[in-house]
Amino acid sequence: MRPNQPRTATAKGTDTKAPNSWQLHELFTYLSHRGISTVVTVTQSGMVGRMETPVDTPYLADNVILFRYFEDRGRVRRAISVFKKRSGAHELTIRELRLGASGLDIGEPLHEFQGVLTGVPTFIGQGNAAPAANRNHPSTFGGDAHGR
Q1: What is the mean pLDDT of each run of 10 residues along the chain (148 residues)?
Q2: Which of 74, 92, 130, 132 minimizes the number of CB atoms within 10 Å of its CB?
């Protein structure tokens, strides 16, 4: 590294050319003041279990939507939740997210599970086994009642 080259550090303490959280926050604030909406996606390491991100997402963003995989009886399912909304109230439930040929389908709240955001939930509903996904409700974002 050259002596005059800017230096930033990641959460793991290694040198990188990527901007740090403070620089990104300043950029996003500038863009917001200019009337520009910014959509940022962040890849998380760890598909199931503990998740880590290279930046402090809640600090940077006005709104954070969390997508999460979780396992249910040997099947991979997806969940969606609004993790943060800076201004105003938002829904606090975790819902199933289905992707089909006709679009997105956001299901009923996943009340029968505890720990969905960990990726390894516990079934706390009635009965001995987790119920099959309820696919008999209208689609929210396109597709039919079967998530297709």
Answers
A1: 46 57 87 90 66 69 85 89 86 93 93 87 74 42 40
A2: 74
- Its pTM stands at 0.61
- HEC per residue, the chain: CCCCCCCEECCCCCEECCCCHHHHHHHHHHHHHCCCCCCCCCCCECCCCCCECCCCHHHHCCEEEEEEEEEECCEEEEEEEEEEECCCCCCCCCEEEEEECCEEEEEEECCCEECHHHCCCEECCCCCCCCCCCCCCCCCECCCCCCC
Q: How far is CA 37 from CA 17, 23, 45, 112, 127, in A?
A: 25, 17, 26, 36, 46
Which pLDDT value is given to residue 55?
Answer: 66
Rounded distance between C-alpha atoms, residue 72 and residue 110, angstroms: 12
Residue type present at position 125: G
